[in-house]
Amino acid sequence: MKYLLIEDNAELAAALCDRMRLDGHVIDHAATLSEGADFLHVGDYDLILLDIMLPDGDGRGFLERHRARQDDTPVIVLTARSEVSDRVGMLDLGADDYLTKPFDHAELQARCRAVMRRRAGAAQTVIRRGTVALNPVASVLTVGSNETTLRNRELRLLELFMNAPGQIFSKDKLVDRLFSYDDTVTENAIEVYVGRLRKHLEGSSVTISTHRGLGYRLDEG
Asked: Which part of the chain is CATH 1.10.10.10?
């Protein structure tokens, strides 16, 4: 998954980014609402982690504008406010969930997974397409009776494809979803990861097809 963290506490932001990357996610960090808006203007994210009290404004106004643009990217609010009225207000503005600081990273990860499952309309963690099953939490791909533990970017790429079968993803789009702005990467890296996934999927009813000049698509046989 690709996350955007909008948080002005440098120590907390660094800790969250480090942990998310260790868990295999891509994450960009903005220290202000303005920087967060810039990131959203040029990139796509699976989830936004939003602090409320920021140097250039209130995150609630940012959230309200985010929803007014009909942007349905899930938002989890990170707040030091524990009053029920504050939490209810943020949910009413369009937040998908919230966590009160301080919080445990394991709980944040669980909340992120739950929000993404709700967005996909699924109650289960495992994603199934044809004879293929992917467990993003365990990083395990199952093809028939064979199980493979995927590397981080292999996992995130296959998760992206399996959540949108039939959709063509350009190389630029895949680079944007798999790498942060701080990463140095070429489009050839996408070819390498797609090649690895094709080997993992051999013998299954699922394939990744190339559409010249357009990109790649996951097909179910």
From this structure: 127-220
Residue 47 main-chain phi, psi, to 5 deg: -160, 145
Distance, CA of 40 to CA of 46 (rounded, Å)? 11
Separation in Å, CA 105 to CA 30, 78, 79, 90, 109: 19, 12, 14, 21, 6
CATH architecture of 127-220: Orthogonal Bundle (1.10)
Tokens standing for 5?
């963290």
Residue 57 sits at the vertex; the CA angle it makes with 54 and 177, to the nearest 5 degrees, is: 65
Higher pLDDT among residues 35 and 125, named by residue: 35
pLDDT in tens, 124-138: 578 899 999 999 878
pLDDT, tens only, 157-171 = 999 999 889 999 999
Torsional class of 47: left (φ above 0), alpha (ψ -120 to 50), beta (otherwise): beta
Q: Find the radius of gyration of the CA atoms of the chain.
A: 18
